[in-house]
């Protein structure tokens, strides 16, 4: 605790900006990790949808095949009746019976013709559905392969980024320990309330980072003096001068590279 009270304003500003750089890096890692699972989820939905479609197409083919079998049975039944009526015609006693049987024969012939037409149409449907099944299988194979690739990529990123995130979170706690509690709480509050989680920003072209509101020259001089902590009146962000920001960015860049190198070993 004593160490915190002894820190100069400049040391606090540097620690705050370092903390911001660490937390922003953690945000980047989580964003990358956040997009990939969604992509994997979309691919899983695609694969499931294609499998469902494939199952339905196969069921449709089975149904049509059942219809073909039913029509073939109807044809056989009609042939049996034709044979029966043909024999009966030989023993008719009058023209009325002959005409009646002739109508039955004609009807059964028409039944056979209609059934054969239906069978032809059903077979055309099956050919069409088989073509769609083939295309769906190809699409399913392609999406499934892509899904496996993305899952592998996600697993690799998870394995890599989780280690880096753990290291960075430990560093974040270390830097928080260099800052008095009230500033850490203020930093956390600002970070939760502003866009992109940027609570500490450098001056860029006379305005606070990410803002279009110009900072008066006298305030810029005060910020550059590093004698007190100054916040942007519009966004509430803590402001640091560009020289300090550049120095800390270079320092933290080396630290991030070192962490990544140690993880890669």
Description of the structure:
The chain has 265 residues and is mostly helical. The chain has one domain (2-264): Helix Hairpins. Helices cover 80% and strands 5% of the residues. It has six helices and four strands. It has helices at 2-6, 9-89, 95-176, 181-193, 217-225, 242-264; strands at residues 200-204, 207-208, 230-231, 238-240. Strands 2-1-4-3 form a four-stranded mixed β-sheet. A hairpin with a 6-residue loop joins strand 3 (230-231) and strand 4 (238-240). Helix 2 (9-89) runs antiparallel to helix 3, helix 2 crosses helix 6 (242-264) and helix 3 packs across helix 6. The longest helix is centred in the middle third of the chain and has 82 residues, at 95-176. It starts with a helix and ends with a helix. The mean pLDDT is 91.
Write the topology of this structure:
Layout: H1 2-6, H2 9-89, H3 95-176, H4 181-193, E1 200-204, E2 207-208, H5 217-225, E3 230-231, E4 238-240, H6 242-264
Parallel strand pairs: 1-4
Antiparallel strand pairs: 1-2, 3-4
Helix pairs in contact: 2-3, 2-6, 3-6
Offer a few descriptive terms.
mainly alpha, Helix Hairpins, 265 residues, four-stranded mixed sheet, rod-shaped
Domains, number: 1
Q: CATH topology, which one? A: Helix Hairpins
Amino- and carboxy-terminal Cα gap:
36 Å
| Highest-level CATH class | Mainly Alpha
In percent, how much strand structure appears in the residues?
under 5%
Looking across the biggest beta sheet, what order are the strands in? 2-1-4-3
H and E string: HHHHEEHEEH
Mean pLDDT over all positions: 91
Radius of gyration: 40 Å
| DSSP helix fraction | over 70%
Largest sheet properties: 4 strands, mixed
CATH architecture: Orthogonal Bundle
Supply the number of helical segments.
6
Number of strands: 4
Structural class, judged by helices and strands? mainly alpha
- What general outline do the C-alpha atoms trace? rod-shaped
Low-confidence segments, given as residue ranges, are none
